[in-house]
Amino acid sequence: MVRPANMNLRVAAATALLLTGTFCLAKDARAQFPTESQGVERGTASGTPRTDGAIAERERRTEQERLYRERADHRQRGETYIAGFGGGTLGSTTVNMEGRGSALGTTIDSPNLANSAVYGLKIGYFHPGRLNWLGLEIEGFNSTPHIRETGGQPGSHLRLTTLGLNAIARTKLGCRDDRRDERDAYDYSPLRENARCPLQVYAGAGVGIFFAETSNQFGRSTDNARAGLNALAGAKYFFNEHLALFAEYKFNYVDLKFDQNQIPGGATAGLNGTYLINHVVGGLAFHF
Length: 288
What we know:
The protein is an alpha+beta fold. It has two domains: about 5-70, no CATH class; about 80-285, Porin (Beta Barrel), CATH 2.40.160.20. Helix content is about 25%, strand content about 45%. It contains four helices and nine strands. An eight-stranded antiparallel barrel has the order 1-3-4-5-6-7-8-9. Strand 6 (about 200-215) and strand 7 (about 220-240) form a beta hairpin. It is rod-shaped and about 150 Å long.
């Protein structure tokens, strides 16, 4: 029969042996399957290729996405400008003049128009990206090309206000380096292009809406919102990305009809004809 003391020693020894084996198994398992924090620490300390590669790839993709967004934003930016100008209305004339109303059938020589000053404002927009050569413009200007006396017919004071809606095409010259086209660059900016290619020539045409008022010793008459042609061509030089000096020629073609009080023949003696008007102007433009 086993004694109680020997039995207790055997149980204690078996328990100790079991605990030792369990501890060893746990240690081996921890070594083979590290926790997440241990993996990060080991990867940081020892530079685990898999962990470092994943981080580098994520950072690279983030940077690519940022550059793509910046590039898309630049390519979507158009170019707006405002400008003021002044100059002269020169060498203008009329054709196909004829009487109206009680003066119908009266032979009238087509008079020339007097030279005058002209002044105005414009605002425009050039499209973004590869359509940056094409723009739209609205302008307004005033002049007073009075109708000269001719063939026994009296002269008349003429005040003409023009509202022009133009399509504009331009090309850039005098570029300062060999990079012909930067529109594919991620940091492309049309304003930066203005500084790189400071000399630009342009031309445009559109609808002119004319508001005319004439007066002489017989009275006053108006012809408002008459549609005609407004055409222009010019050159622009940029001092920097924003500020430019320009010179421009304008041509207007419009039929005006003054129904009364223009020539001898009574209150209904009117005058109508085609007006061919030339303007030469210069001014400053601000692009943004």
